[in-house]
Design goal:
6-stranded mixed β-sheet, about 290 residues, 5-stranded mixed β-sheet, Metallo-beta-lactamase, Chain A, alpha+beta, 13 strands, Arc Repressor Mutant, subunit A
């Protein structure tokens, strides 16, 4: 019987390699903020020939830390999605190392990295194979339509990008974001052998099945609150519905929560449970 992998629940440290498993190192950029938590995590996988997952934003100190650690060994750059805190450093690092860039592109919605130019993209269940490790590609749209997660099969470690964050819920911003697809993509992960989650923001998650089920439950409970808000205050704008559906969230965050509320409304519309007329929403068939 193969011994279980020992994961290292190490603190976030910026601009330094932090070992989280035998095959993976975490680097954290200096872009901490309300949407990025402690900063964007980039992960280096391998020993002799390395892959970099989510190179991060244009942050010279972060980029230099990755280049210094890889020291001529970087061969591949893989991106979970093209939001500007995840992929812009790919171009610079590829130019300096000759590493091949992989990931999916999407039509710009004003929030995408227009410099991202991959060698090719992936479809669900592709396996990126090297002499040292295998990364299974899981297509997980929802946070954004081109989102991918990468499962390091040797360690059952899932690099989740922004599909799952540690310590906070993911903001879904339509039209590139889709709440229905997001929940379905969470459910998809339950079909795979996952021992730990390595998110792009926050610490390792060492109870992945419990966390995934908790996130699904949270989204469905929020959907129930959106339905309740529609019933209490029909013919309302998303802005007016937000304080009702997010009454457990501090008002300072309501402008951000409104994005996800709108995504919930669009999900209900697809399921013939809500209708929008002239910017105002009403529940139907509830």
């Amino acid at each position: 019987m193969t011994a279980p992998i020992e994961f290292q629940q190490a603190d976030i440290v910026r601009f330094q390699p932090v070992q989280i498993s035998p095959l993976a190192r975490r680097f954290t950029a200096g872009n901490a903020g309300i949407m990025t938590g402690p900063g964007t995590n980039s992960y280096v996988v391998g020993r002799d020939k390395l892959a970099l997952i989510d190179p991060g934003p244009i942050d010279d100190e972060h980029i230099d830390a990755i280049l210094n650690y890889c020291a001529g060994r970087l061969r591949w750059i893989l991106v979970t999605h093209t939001h500007r805190d995840h992929s812009p450093a790919a171009k610079i690092i590829a130019e300096k190392t000759g590493a091949e860039v992989y990931g999916n592109i999407i039509e710009s919605d004003g929030r995408q990295d227009d410099t991202f130019d991959p060698l090719c993209g992936f479809v669900h269940n592709d396996v990126f194979t090297t002499a040292e490790f295998n990364l299974r590609v899981l297509f997980t749209p929802g946070h954004v339509g081109n989102h991918l997660c990468y499962l390091l099969e040797e360690e059952k470690l899932l690099f989740t990008g922004d599909h799952i964050m540690q310590g906070s819920t993911v903001v879904i911003i339509p039209p590139a974001g889709d709440m229905k697809l997001y929940i379905e993509s969470l459910q998809l992960l339950l079909n795979y052998p996952i021992a730990a989650l390595a998110p792009a923001h926050g610490l390792l998650v060492l109870n992945p099945e419990l966390e995934i089920k908790k996130l699904i439950k949270h989204r469905l409970l929020r959907e129930a609150k959106v339905i309740s808000a529609l019933q209490r205050q029909p013919d309302s704008t998303p802005e007016a519905l937000t304080p009702l559906a997010y009454d457990d969230t501090v008002p300072q965050l309501h402008s951000i929560a409104q994005y996800s509320l709108y995504a919930h409304l669009l999900k209900l519309q697809k399921e013939n449970k809500a209708v929008e007329v002239d910017g105002k929403w009403r529940g139907i068939n509830l």
